[in-house]
Design a protein that fits this description.
Shape: globular
Order of helices and strands: HHEEHEEHHHH
Radius of gyration: 17 Å
Number of strands: 4
Distance between the termini: 7 Å
Number of domains: 1
Strand content: 5-15%
Structural class: mainly alpha
Strand order of the largest sheet: 1-2
Number of helices: 7
Length: 195
């Protein structure tokens, strides 16, 4: 199985996990949970869990391909249209858009996650359990966050580089992360050559 296929399985299962664990997960909140999963993991290991690219939108970081598949039913090769459907909600109750419903038979499978990835997935879900999307948006907009840095320097609509997750890390930690990145790339080259 290719690295991209594994990332797609992790993405789909992260979405399933977040929705099954927290009934307050709607589309906007899901986008933020995926962001925290990927950027926290990058800060620890030097790579994202889902392989998604994030863009600085007005309400915070968004994995645009995932958004487009769920919100617009576009095929962005994420595979999420096969696991979740969008349900409109009453905007008088929740100003943040759309409810999500897992399609029949969807169950979380942790097979593709490393222990560290699974721990961060669980922690992100726990930290934001029941927290409204508006509060999570506020957190992504705080000074010094990757979103805020990109908006200030490049403007809304710009890509958010994962390297910004390392802001505030010691040089020793950054060196360790870079070494782990190199090890991972070597393993991917070896396994990629065998596929």
């Amino acid at each position: 199985m290719s690295t991209n296929s594994i990332s797609i399985e992790k993405l789909k299962n992260a979405i399933i996990y977040f929705i099954q664990q927290d009934k307050t997960v709607k589309l906007t909140k899901l986008m933020k949970l995926l962001y925290y999963l990927d950027f926290r993991h990058y800060r620890e290991a030097g790579y994202s869990v889902t392989g998604q690219e994030y863009t600085a939108w007005p309400k915070g970081p968004v994995p645009v391909d995932v958004w487009a598949e769920i919100r617009n039913n576009e095929d962005r090769h994420c595979g999420v249209r096969k696991i979740v459907k969008l349900l409109p909600i009453d905007h008088n109750v929740d100003a943040f858009g759309f409810d999500l419903s897992l399609l029949a038979g969807q169950r979380f499978d942790d097979y593709f996650f490393s222990p560290r990835e699974k721990k961060i997935l669980e922690n992100v879900s726990f930290i934001f359990m029941g927290v409204p999307a508006s509060k999570i948006i506020d957190a992504t907009h705080m000074p010094g966050t990757p979103w805020e840095t990109v908006v200030k320097t490049q403007g809304e609509g710009s890509a958010i580089p994962y390297a910004l997750a390392l802001k505030g890390c010691s040089q020793e930690d950054i060196d360790a992360i870079r070494e782990e990145q190199q090890d991972r790339q070597a393993i991917e080259r070896i396994y990629g050559a065998l596929l």
